[in-house]
Amino acid sequence: MTQFLITLWLAMGRLPFALYRLASSGLSGVLALLLFALARERRMVALTNLSLCFPEASVTQRIRWAIAHIYFYLRTFLDRAWLWSGNESVVRDRVRIDNPQSLAGLDGAPATIFLAPHFLGLDAAWSRLCLEVDMVTMYSNQKNPVLNELILHGRSKFGDQLLLSRQQGVRPLLTAMKKGRPLYYLPDMDFGERDSVFVNFFGVKAATVTAVARLAKMLNAQVVPVTTVYRNGRYHIRIHEPLPNFPLEDDTESTQAMNHHIESWVKDNIAQYLWLHKRFKTRPPGESRIY
């Protein structure tokens, strides 16, 4: 069944662009409303996150954001069909780097960390950047072996990319970065207390990994944020200026500064940030559960 659904999904991604946009928009719109109504647990996660981060917004506004978020989540899921099976010209046409000249600044730094917060277009940004530079990133193995193989194949489609599982540890990652590969790093998920500190995210304590600060300090790396927006059928990537005065001397202060930067980008694109993730699952000692 899994293989059949994957075949159907990939076939949809090969439709002519105009027909694909119409079909995927309609399907995502219908499913978004159904999932908001029926997927109670995930609906509550999204609404809880939005209420914690935007307490001043009305309930109606947060519901609108949640439904829009599920819609964009489904759209980006469907779009991985052409991202992972399409050719280079398709990806270049549908995923645009708004300021490609910023990539020229990579050559002068000892090492580079692409800081990619969990906006829903982060896989599109990865695939498009793979056409410009060979990178290294880390991934978590999926329980379904067919799906796991599909993801690894799709993310390795262009260039000579190095994908490391979290079980491989940090040593091969450091070796790759020292040889000039930028690290594409997703810094804003709750991985528990290990290697994390509790810093504010929209005023709420969130367990946040300190890896960006530690790697930047260890390798004298510049940290270059990459954000992606889905708009009118295409993805638009923004390569920001390197984070100024980063890292700070203290890893906790650096991690807090990173979160504040992420907050500013989220405010510009609320519906397309990953609200379905239990970002505040791990609590400081003595605090009660949120979800």
Automatic annotation (TrEMBL):
Localization of this protein: Cell inner membrane
Pfam families found in the cross-reference section: Lip_A_acyltrans
Membrane spanning stretches: 18-39
Protein's name in the database: Lipid A biosynthesis acyltransferase
InterPro entries xref list: LipA_acyltrans (IPR004960)
Keywords from the UniProt entry: Acyltransferase, Cell inner membrane, Cell membrane, Membrane, Transferase, Transmembrane, Transmembrane helix
